[in-house]
Amino acid sequence: MAATAALFIALAPSVQAVWPMPSEYHDGKIGVEIKRSGFMIKSNVTSSSVLNAAIERYQYLIEHEFFDSPYNFNEGALKTSGYIYSLQVDVQSAQDVLDLETDESYILEVPIEGKAALSAKTPFGAVRGLETFSQLIMANSGRKTIKNAPIRIVDAPKFTHRGILLDTSRNFYHVDSILRTLDAMSYNKLNVLHWHVVDAFSWPIESKVHPELTEKGTYSMDMRYSYQDVKKIINYAKNRAIRIMPEFNMPANTFVIGEAHPEIMSCLNKQPNWDKYAVEPPSGQLNIADPRAVSFAFDIITEYSRLFIDLGFHIGGNSINMDCWKEDPVIELYVRDHPGESVESLAVGWFMQMVGKLADMGKIPFLYEEPVLNFNYTSKNTTIMQAWVGEDSVGKLVDKGYRVIASPWNRYRLDCGHGSWLSNFEGSSWCDPYKGWQQIYSYDPLANITEPEKRKLVLGGEVALFSAQSDETTIDRYLWPRASAFAEIMWSGNFDPIMNATRDAAKVAPRLTDQRFRMVARGIMAEPLQPLWCIRYPEACAHPTAAS
Amino acid sequence: MAATAALFIALAPSVQAVWPMPSEYHDGKIGVEIKRSGFMIKSNVTSSSVLNAAIERYQYLIEHEFFDSPYNFNEGALKTSGYIYSLQVDVQSAQDVLDLETDESYILEVPIEGKAALSAKTPFGAVRGLETFSQLIMANSGRKTIKNAPIRIVDAPKFTHRGILLDTSRNFYHVDSILRTLDAMSYNKLNVLHWHVVDAFSWPIESKVHPELTEKGTYSMDMRYSYQDVKKIINYAKNRAIRIMPEFNMPANTFVIGEAHPEIMSCLNKQPNWDKYAVEPPSGQLNIADPRAVSFAFDIITEYSRLFIDLGFHIGGNSINMDCWKEDPVIELYVRDHPGESVESLAVGWFMQMVGKLADMGKIPFLYEEPVLNFNYTSKNTTIMQAWVGEDSVGKLVDKGYRVIASPWNRYRLDCGHGSWLSNFEGSSWCDPYKGWQQIYSYDPLANITEPEKRKLVLGGEVALFSAQSDETTIDRYLWPRASAFAEIMWSGNFDPIMNATRDAAKVAPRLTDQRFRMVARGIMAEPLQPLWCIRYPEACAHPTAAS
Questions:
Q1: Which of A226, B147, B170, B501 has the most Cβ atoms closer than 10 angstroms to its Cβ?
Q2: Using CB atoms within 10 A of its CB, is residue A211 exposed (0-12), middle (13-18) or buried (19+)?
Q3: Segments of A451-545 assigned E as strands
Q4: Is residue B442 less than 8 Å (CB to CB) from chain A?
């Protein structure tokens, strides 16, 4: 009975509700209040438009947000001993250069009275620190307060690539939904939107070189991104320290290209037995033996390399079906007429040409794992590989010397477990079940990689939302707060240095719930994880026989 | 190749996009236009407040809605031959009595010009017909048009109880979310909101008799329903021909009562080994040997029987754990001191008393199946049983002569497949996987019940949303459009009389997608079922090896 009774004492979180957990965190015991009128964020430079925009954004947010954690439902007035009047932001460099190496570190200090201080090497580090500062503030008895001052946070991300993959081809998302997603990413210190722009289903983006793609390939006039839309998204993202990395997935998953150019396609929409040619309908792959297909792909790379200014450019390479090509008469003939060539060698040649083209355009190529792990393609060593098939692909790729983005579907694919989208199929989705936040949080992309040099090759990871059963009505709930769980793994990991152990999920859950409620208050429709009861009695919502 | 090419012709739906499919539908070949200015809905009576409210609502909706089906994305201007100037609604009775026997039939006729006509026996039938009329109208080239006039629809529901169970205890829904859900129900001709008001986690409703329940048992001051809220919800529902049937689940799933009254509870929040005493934490059941518990339950029934004016009153009875009671010292002693009594007989006695009390209050009791199927409880024959454990429970209960509501969890539980809500458990939910619309649509509650007299005992069904992982941010997505799939089964079934076969899912999916888009246009954030591509090429989104 003593154990039971103890559970009824609401447990205070052991640290402030900052999500993701900073890498180094020191706090005190004194409550402080944010001065309501006149609280100002100031900076040492005015020439960084990223920093200026961030200060304006957080000045507004701090003035208008009045968030209280559900943790504190029965808490009285916090005793405060002084006011914080301002936050001074100092950056070492005012240069707004966001790339794969950008420094995002910062140091934040909140005293027990007076001026808080944030220092960073870059404006992007300051963006991260401003977010942390905003999360320290809780509404309490009509005031805005910070618990447990003085606070000193020394913070930097564990991984440099912390991304979300968003598929806008299976179903469409209007620009507003993408901007809102970028907001949510900044609340979780994620820094890459891997924009899976096109896929087999639709071509939702303007093309000036091949306008016929958009004409034939968008779902409706209202469902396409103009150049202006893309530029707006890139700029909005940059102000939040987020890179937009586009993907134009080739040569598989390209049925939609065949709507305009059936002449360069193999196995175009084979029906009803599409399953011999593709993992899902509609089937169709660019005809890799046709020089017109190569030339077309070069056009795509050239056009969109210019529009998307990020250094990274993803050209897909996943889910290739060899039967599709083996049964294509053009390819059959080509292989017969070219001794030494095979469908496999053609595929390898395809990727060599594409990666070469990207190098010419000054881009860093990104590829899914298959060309390297299935076709013995040896990429130029600038290529960054995305491991998505299995957790062990990460290790296989770093063993071959590649830099790797970890996104194993069994942990990081957020659209799974939603039944089949095929009209007449009552079974589950191939990637069943739903990936709970617990499975995401307990996965360490560095697992089983011991050599320090190899560990450095793991740049980070991506959670993925493929959109067969998602569109703008559901995006928030598919992504959040599970992408928040991922974000903490990417930012600081799941290891508790004080406990010298992996964090106890029963303590993580209410912190994550806090973050979820803050996101909801900021307009992100993140889904609930548990009955709200569990934030009162977190230890009581654990499974007795599950691994702790 | 011929088969493939044929798929590229967008397939017109075989009937208008009315959902659920009416039971009898005749149409012609002529397009008509709704007169934009001056279109009026008139009625033969003015004394029904339900009818008046419905006419006002649909007059507004028809004026303001400008919905076009994604089916018609590339369709040109519809040729129309005349205008519809008005809709004349005639009801036989103006009495607003909504109960378990209310007639919802209607006949709707749309001519090729002039006045459309809707006739119904009751105002509630008129509500159904108005919804149908609104769905016939599609935006086309800046006009509002109806295809395929003349139309004659003779319609009535197959089942009288077509419900959604909504749990407001695990997580809270503000009144607005419930009203929006009632709107969505009316768009799908559902007629019962089974309001699972309380459960183990929170007590979100005002009690005038036991205010301590709300005081100790709500999540926050902002998360409770006042008497006024409840009355508002009941009235709003009635205007949409929907009954609000409350459930006060006892004697299990009642931990929250123990927050105020631990003295009448058994096995209250056993930790950490709650799994011996309950299917999920927190454990706790009313102590059935304690007269104070019986008296408390009578108070609850009395108070809420008056507030909720519906004839139906659900008193739960599911998920009882016998160990909880067997190990309770009060119950142990009682059984020892009362020869012939057992924990089972106490449980049977409990339900006898509760059902008796409800009869005294003039209510029709509803119970989950367990008291009858697990405890050999023989209910008074007025009781309506809810079969939720297995599909075969429906047959077992009608064999015993009970009227039954079918809600087998493996078909109708909409919250499943979302991972575990327990903090530290990486496994799936017990009711995994997610129930796709296909599984819902293919289930016939009358399956394997052949005798006509027994088939009549199946009153209908309920899909259920238990809210461990849902709240108002997710309700629309969990319910819709899967509850729409259910609604068609309840309203007219999945049998196509023209094809003389169960409907082909490849033809149902785009119709359901249409209904989903209409709901989204009306503000219900229903989730997408498929890539939008599938509404263009429905036959191409079928699984080749699945049963057709």
A1: B170
A2: exposed
A3: 458-465, 495-496, 501-502
A4: yes
Rounded to whole angstroms, the Cα distance separating A312 from A362 reads 9
3-state secondary structure (DSSP) of residue B484: helix
Residues A26-53 as b or e (16 or more Cβ within 10 Å = b): ebeebbbbbeeeebebebebeebebbbb
Which chain B residue has the Cα nearest residue A512? Answer: B423
Report ipTM (2 d.p.): 0.94
Distance (Å, whole) CA A419 – CA B509 = 14
Q: How far apart are the first and last CA of chain B?
A: 22
Domain ranges across chain B: 18-155, 161-491
In CATH, B161-491 is 3.40.50.150: no
One fold for both B18-155 and B161-491?
no
For B18-155, CATH number out of 3.90.1170.20, 3.30.379.10, 3.30.565.10, 3.40.50.1110 equals 3.30.379.10
User: Is B315 within 8 Å of B248 (Cβ atoms)?
Assistant: yes
Task: Return the DSSP state at B288.
Answer: T
> Rounded to a whole number, what is the distance in Å from the CA of B418 to chain A's nearest CA?
6
A119-173 confidence digits (pLDDT tens): 999 999 999 999 999 999 999 999 999 999 999 999 999 999 999 999 999 999 9
CATH 3.40.30.10 fits A29-155, yes or no: no
Which residue among B425, B476, B539 sits closest to A543, beta carbon to beta carbon? B425
| Residue A426 φ/ψ, nearest 5 degrees | -90, 0
Per the confidence metrics, is the pTM higher than 0.80? yes
**Selected residue of B274, B414, B423, B541 to mutate for chain A interface (largest A Cβ count, 10 A):** B423
Instruction: Give SS3 for A104.
Output: coil
CB A313 within 8 A of CB A272: no
Question: Is residue A477 within 8 angstroms of chain B, CB to CB?
Answer: yes
* DSSP conformational letter for A338: S
Q: What is the pLDDT of residue B16?
A: 66
Residue of A nearest to B221 (CA): A73
Residue A151, number of CB atoms within 10 A of its CB = 26
In terms of Cα–Cα distance, which of B546, B542, B445, B436 is closest to B493?
Answer: B445
